Structures are given as C-alpha cells and as structure tokens.
Amino acid sequence: MALRRAASLLLRPRLRAPSVMPPSDKRLALACIKLGQHLEASGAADPSRVLALALRSLGILEATPNSATSTTASHSDAVSLAMALHLAGSASFDLSRFHDALSFLTRSLRLVSPLLPSSSSAAAASGDDDAQGFDVRPVAHAVRLQLANVKTALGRREEALADMRACLDLKESILPPGSRELGAAYRDLAEAYSTVLDFKEALPLCEKALELHQSTLGKNSVEVAHDRRLLGVIYTGLEQHEQALQQNEMSQKVMKSWGVAGDELLHAEIDAANIKIALGKCDEAVTVLRNVSKQVEKDSEIRALVFISMAKALANQEKAGDTKRCLEIACDILEKKELAAPDKVAEAYVEVSSLYEMVNEFDKAISLLKRSLGMLERIPQAQHMEGNVAARIGWLLLLTGKVSEAVPYLEDAVERMKDSFGPKHYGVGYVYNNLGAAYMEIGRPQSAAQMFALAKEVMDVSLGPHHSDTIEACQSLANAYNAMGSYALAMEFQKRVVDSWRNHGPSARDELKEAIRLYEQIKIKALSCLSPENSAIALPEPLEKEVDSDSTRVAQQ
C-alpha cells in the first residue's frame, strides 16, 4: 500500500497530459509500476505479466537521460527506479527465479539506502520537490522484506535475519510507539531467530512483543496468546521447560476464553505434551495426546503429529515395541500427505527418524532421512533444512560403519550449512568434526587434521574455547597429527587439551587424567623417533607434575 501511494505521488502531473504518451515518457514508466503493484496486491495476477510491466518501466527509466544511474540523478528518479526494481524482484520471486530476484532487489536497496532520513543526503536537504512528497522509508522496508524472503528461499538464513532486523529498525522509526503492527514485527523476528535455533536472540524480541500487546490490547487478547505460545517454544529451546509449560498453558487459557478452536489450539496442546515429555511427565503427556487424537480426523496431519509425540513419550519410557507401532501409524498418514504438504511431511520424517534412532532402528532412520532429503531438494524455500538432513544421514552412516557412504553426505552438508547459516555457525563445526572422524576411519589423517582444525576454529568462536565439544575437537586434532607422525604438533594440541580440562576443575578429573596419559604417550613416540644428532630439537614444555600415580606408570610403561 505504501509503495502504491509513493507511485501515485511520483505520477502526479504538473501539466495536462497529452492523450497519447510517447513510449519513452517517464509517466508511462510510473503508470506501469502502479499497475504492476495493483496486480501484485490483488494476488490473482500472473507474475509473468507483473514482471513484464516492471521490465518495461525499467527500460524507460534507465534510458532516461537523467536516469538514477547517472551522477546528476534526482532523488525522485532514484526512488522511481528503486520501485521498478522492487517490483521486478517481487515478480521474479513469485516465479521462483530467486537469483534474478536477488539481483533486482540488491540494486533497489543500493538506490534507496542513501535517501533514508539518517543519511547525509536526505531528500529534504536536496530541495527536490518530488522527493518531499512521500517518505522513502516504506520503500526501503518493502525492499528489505522481500530481500529477506529471497535469501530465505536461497537458504541464506543468516543474511535473511540481517535484513529482517533492518526491517524492524525501519518499522520502529515509522510506526508510533505502541503500534500493534510493531508488536507483530517483534514477534515475526523472534520466530525467525527460533527457526535457526537462536533462542537467546529470540527471547527478548518475543518479550517485547508480549509487553507491547499487553499494554495496548490487554492481557487476554489473541495476540498475547500468540506471543505466549511462541515464548513456550523459545523456553523449550532454552531447556527452561517449567517456564515453557507455564507460557503454553496461559496461551491455551486465552485462546479458549476467546473461543479459538481448530488446528491452532490443537497444536498448542501437542506442544504442551512435548514439554511434559521433556519434564519426564510422560503419562500426563500421553493423556493429553489421547484427548487431542479424539478431536481430529483419522488421516489428518495433526493425528500424525499426535502419534509422533506419543512415540516420543513411549521411547522415553523404553517401550520400544509401542514406539515403533506409533511411528508406523504416523508414517502411513504422512505418506498420503507428501504431495499436498511436502515441506511439513519432510520435517516430520526427520523427527520420526530421530525416534527410530532412539530405539536402535538405524536403517529405518537413514531411509526416512534420505526420503526427506529427496523431498526437500524439490522445495526451493527449504534449502536451509537440506544441510541439516544431509549431516544427519552422514552421521548415522558413520555410526553404523558405512564410512565411505557417509563422506559425500558430510561433505555436501558442510557446504549447504555454510551457505545457510554462515561459516561460523556451531552446526558447521559439528559437521566438520564428523567429517574429520570419517577421514580418519578411511586412512586420510591429513584431510582429517584439516577438518578438525576447521571444527576447532568454528567452535572456539561459537561455543568458546573451554566448551567440552571444543576440547574434544582439539583432542581429535591431536590424534590426527599423532597418526600422521607429526608428534611436535600432536603434543602442542594435546597440551591444550590438558590445560582446558584442568580449567574445568574436579568435575573433569577423569578427562584430565586421560588427556595427560595421551600426552605422555605421544611424548614417548616423539623421543623414540629422534636420532642422537636431532635430540636437541625442542619439544613442547613438559606438563606440571600433577599426574596421578596411575598415569605416571602408564607413561613409563
């Protein structure tokens, strides 16, 4: 709507227009933009037609002598071209031409960014009368929002989050304090962070949404119910299950008071059951799930989710037979929904596979993950999930001894996850670590050392140098150098492992003892390989004399 208003202002004539416009008339370009925006807003137009209008407008504007590509361009020219590029990007997105969309929208953002009020070259200071007629911030917001959609479709989740954060900043500057729309923007960004499992970033945003909605709409509004349900999901991700259950129950209470029924309430009840399972209240969870199953159709997607959660409860009670029966019922339902809702079914298959893994049905788990991956590869907007699923397949193949089959999945997962979450995401570090383990198994210690070094580098940043998983990556790196015969490097990293476990204090006594034993073992190998003339080659400093008597005897032997 804001973009159409802007187009109307730019199209406002100063002189009486002739009955027929020449093909290169700027007003014709603006009319194409306005028509394209109207068709796009209707939701019924062919995106190809909208794209044709956008490209026609672009052709006219870029051919104008005083176009926005020139150094003498006015602000109104720049905004007109930016709006045409945004329209072309939106139509390209609807046609699933994501790289074209990214190109159009990136150019559009480059044009509008200098015109924002915070910029040194604001429109008001330029004296351009056309540019003073409207606020450029809604245009910038629309461009940023569509960029986030495109980058999400391309699997570039971290970059999409940056665009969504910029959208929120723009809304905060545009909307009045206490706006309901601003509360929804906080919640949308919180949900986006939750999707990439960044619950710490999501929590304060969702709390802001809740506070705003409570102050403006009251504590029993539907918006507050939505906020509380998301808070339940976030607290679950943070493993604060009591708070999660409290928020979920408050959300359900509000929804029931407003007469909200149907799928939304049923999903909230399933969420509550899953939280109870995490709290060890499996019998209570089963009771909730049985109540939900009575309210849904036999072959509905929700019934499949009920049986998946039921299987989770039973697996936690070590009832393997009942768990498998529930999973079989869920899979039968999901198989019928593959064509109608492939994204939801693929995600459900991933959860089912993790439960088969819990009951040691690894082949079944791998088969479902491969099926899920095949479905995700046909869904452009699901690229962020492909890396996770490929990584899981690789890990299970490695676990079951099918190492040569695991390697290509892990190699593929690394690249996909780097594209989706950035090279320093902790998940990338874990895949590097698993890939290093696979290389060690097939006798490629040099390749393994490279992967372990990358894993340690990522985990140092994402988890911290003293996290137990970071220490294990360092241990794996020391083992790889040991296998290569690079004993000086092996000792250097093994010493880091010893120092890190020592910093953990008494709780890591056994880990420290084992790390010291391995250090002494490498040291003996190193000394045995030194010829008399090379005996003066410096080795890492000896460890402090804190070795237990058992460790000392092992090293001496």
UniProtKB/TrEMBL annotation:
The top of its lineage is: Eukaryota, Viridiplantae, Streptophyta, Embryophyta, Tracheophyta
Keyword field: TPR repeat
Q: Which organism is it from?
A: Oryza barthii
Q: What is this protein called?
A: MalT-like TPR region domain-containing protein
Q: Which domain of life is it from?
A: Eukaryota
Determine if Electron transport is one of this entry's keywords: no
InterPro entries the UniProt entry points to: TPR-like_helical_dom_sf, TPR_rpt
Q: Which Pfam families match?
A: TPR_10, TPR_12
TPR repeat residues: 183-216, 346-379
PROSITE patterns named among the record's database cross-references = TPR
Record's keyword annotation contains rRNA-binding: no
